[in-house]
Write a structure and sequence with these properties.
4 copies of one chain form a homotetramer. The first copy, chain A, is an alpha+beta fold. Chain A contains 8 helices and 13 strands. Chain A has helices at residues 14-18, 25-30, 68-76, 118-128, 142-152, 159-176, 215-221, 226-230, and strands at residues 2-13, 44-48, 56-60, 78-87, 102-104, 107-115, 183-190, 195-201, 210-212, 236-239, 250-252, 257-262, 265-270. In chain A, helix 4 (118-128) runs parallel beside helix 5 (142-152), helix 4 (118-128) packs across helix 6 and helix 5 (142-152) crosses helix 6. The first copy, chain A, is globular. The interface between A and D is medium-sized, with 19 and 19 residues.
Chain lengths: 284, 284, 284, 284
Amino acid sequence: MCRWLAYSGSPVLLERALYAPAHSLIDQSLHSTLGAEPTNGDGFGVGWYDDTPRPGVFRSIEPAWNDQNLRELAAHVTSGHFFAHIRAAIGSAVQQTNCHPFRHGRWLFMHNGFLADLTRVKRDLVLAVDESLYPEIAGQADTELLFYLALTFGLEDDPAEAVAQAIGLVEAVGQRKGVKYPFQGTIATTDGERMWVFRYSSERRSRSLFFTGHVPTLRELYPDREVLFEVSDDARLVVSEPIGDLPGAWNEVPESSYGVVGRGEDRLSPFVAKPPATSVPITA
Amino acid sequence: MCRWLAYSGSPVLLERALYAPAHSLIDQSLHSTLGAEPTNGDGFGVGWYDDTPRPGVFRSIEPAWNDQNLRELAAHVTSGHFFAHIRAAIGSAVQQTNCHPFRHGRWLFMHNGFLADLTRVKRDLVLAVDESLYPEIAGQADTELLFYLALTFGLEDDPAEAVAQAIGLVEAVGQRKGVKYPFQGTIATTDGERMWVFRYSSERRSRSLFFTGHVPTLRELYPDREVLFEVSDDARLVVSEPIGDLPGAWNEVPESSYGVVGRGEDRLSPFVAKPPATSVPITA
Amino acid sequence: MCRWLAYSGSPVLLERALYAPAHSLIDQSLHSTLGAEPTNGDGFGVGWYDDTPRPGVFRSIEPAWNDQNLRELAAHVTSGHFFAHIRAAIGSAVQQTNCHPFRHGRWLFMHNGFLADLTRVKRDLVLAVDESLYPEIAGQADTELLFYLALTFGLEDDPAEAVAQAIGLVEAVGQRKGVKYPFQGTIATTDGERMWVFRYSSERRSRSLFFTGHVPTLRELYPDREVLFEVSDDARLVVSEPIGDLPGAWNEVPESSYGVVGRGEDRLSPFVAKPPATSVPITA
Amino acid sequence: MCRWLAYSGSPVLLERALYAPAHSLIDQSLHSTLGAEPTNGDGFGVGWYDDTPRPGVFRSIEPAWNDQNLRELAAHVTSGHFFAHIRAAIGSAVQQTNCHPFRHGRWLFMHNGFLADLTRVKRDLVLAVDESLYPEIAGQADTELLFYLALTFGLEDDPAEAVAQAIGLVEAVGQRKGVKYPFQGTIATTDGERMWVFRYSSERRSRSLFFTGHVPTLRELYPDREVLFEVSDDARLVVSEPIGDLPGAWNEVPESSYGVVGRGEDRLSPFVAKPPATSVPITA
């Protein structure tokens, strides 16, 4: 169980999104209300885009609520495109290399959920990672493995298709190993221009996911909220659990669907996991 | 807000007290039920006595629930006298030097509560610490300061009297500075042979404190509980919040009282804070 | 023993100054050559100015050479005015609140050296800190105390005078307590527009301090060095130990002197510690 | 580059071996003299045996020289069989799961050296790890992988043979991938009763390794050294680099050899890496 937040829009100080709102993501690290676990204190990570070629990533094993360096960073870094993640570890160690978001080139990836029965499926999934990508895997988190599977299946060319194949492989291997519901979770990935968000689980009872409504409409609803006039018309937040205190601001991403946000694009589509196109060896 | 546990009795592996019971102290680091805050994730500490002259102290800024080294230590260290503390920081930094228990010579000291409005009273209280003890203060926690005040007032000779004077000074300085309820909390201190536990607050609405009943009586109540037959007749646990699942096992320490446990002694007495005997300069 | 670096000039990515040069500050964390100790692995800190009202400060207890977050920060933060410090602890704990630079409002302060026999002089020096500033002291480092003394003596109005008085008090108290050479070190402080750097010790054998020559002159000497053409004419680095591989680039700050850099100002003056103007109580 | 120490003999406080001697292992964390790198500040680990079924392991990412908890542990834990390791990371992250010693059941394993060109050989080596052991791999260190290969080849039954096969496989895969000298290092492994130490490299220029002479003989040489009279006749230290100040105390383990110590056994034999008996798939 984790919580995450993704922002795309006109540049803002990170703290505007991470600390300022009521029931902020940082508050949720101590007191989540929608999560399976109320505390997400096993580390955190932030990834942000600026003018440099690669996004910055700041990850720590301290609980987010008392990390002074995160507070400093958030008060000084401005970005128009960023991810933040707070972690509740399930099994894997609390170490920076297991903290989200994960990065490859210009891409970031984060996840709230899990690969069920990881020890039974891990080896076969690791074998399916492209050999040239394999040495980059630095931690032991299920999400990092899922990211490298998606990269193997072409994340950088067609993110929705690649994630569908990666989860499809997880389900195929899981079923062969007798895992009832192999995948659970919401995912966000981005290249710094557009972001793709997914809500899916093998069980069709997926973790919650919400996105903010159209900013001009929100301004009409809440004409006295300054923040709505500071951000651009196309600004979007996508979150595991609503933040702030504007009841009409949030829409739920439907079960088994994915969305694309950014560069004018802005749509929701059904999501279907599919077995990977390339044949992947699975041990008996 | 914090949670603590103190054990005195026949030697046991620390994990028997820290991890094994239902709703154990380590569980409480993530989900306390009686505390003002459900999460006590801002570090922890353990202090234990063995054959060496000085108690061992292991303190960490990680949440106790995911500290692998604490788990190892608890599985390998045996002691007949130990303290454990999990911290929810109020204001002061999350750093080892602010973690309880604090140590001076053979003495340990820990606290669940606070000195109200610390910034207004701190300087006067620091001035009251004996000059020879002053350089030992390593952190910025209110509890460490309280410990050095108690040492100044003779903790090593008469712990109950010294704590009464230390809290009395906190109240005297607080009142002069306009602090309504200067002290809140439960305290435990020990020299490795006896332990003194206190429950008191200026407001007379003190944090909870419990101690286990007489072991032979508990054995009659729960004849199938092995742990009760492993420990000595005189074993005692004192805790902020009951652990385990033996409803009749716990007695509450009454408001405004203190207890002494160990070396055959075993009594509860009323606690009254008193102005320190020696005159202490207080700035206007 | 520590090492530090201060930059003032046109905005650059921090990594240009911290990581890129030969024998960079980060290299010096592992292999210093001029320092009393070759390893400065007891934490580090960076402070930088941007458009926000208060400088950012990032401090960590990990050795700088392997801190991944410092590497990320340095690759993404651009500043025209920043401090960096790597620490070799002498006695005080390795904790963030003991890491330099220290901050108060818009001011930063860092130090390579020590207050000799700190335990003998500390209490009297703490007493001399202005009562309104006292509660801000968060750690136990001698340098943080020196900073608050300098603030007490007017650092924000006249930095050179305030530092002279702070060191003067350290010497006065030290002498009364029988400390032979009470102060040692180099100091840098800044308000984000100008910086003041000091080289002084009671013994007159002060830690080394160097500053870069005039950029236009350096360009003539090294016409093929791109970095010299990227920075502004008035750019200056001040360091404990030269970095890079341009032999003619560095001038030594003379013994017992201080310099001012920035806003057109650019001068070196003799430094004399002086007893504080206000009377300060010193215990016998 | 790392440094390690292994002790077998009558029970002693860990601090007797780790901190007390001149040029102790903890001193070497800051100033090694024989190592390829003078600083071993990228974490450390200690593993020790007592009456419980599994050895204790304490690992930290802080430099050993300033870890207060290591100092406490070493002052309170007594053992007749323990390993200690200080790390200088080469490439892999500084995280607890990469710190030595590694543990499986009652076995510990540590290493000073490396698998050359790890990214080229890692995937094939991971594939050779027994499927039932694979899920236990928690970090990304080359040594952890080597340990699981040795376990796959029967470490628990015949340690010398299993290590020979594990290194043999590393060499076989390395040669197929064009790695000139695939293995370098000294290794220690133990089940808590005997320990096996190895000195070997593909290049035949192996890292140094030393063991203490016969205790009764050392007592004759140094009749005034108390420590020699406190330990049992059969006590042995094996180290990367001699500690203490007894020049005649140390013998070098010869190039390409291994030793067995404990339970009356005490012998040195030649070491030859050998291709694994079972066929292992290697990708082209």
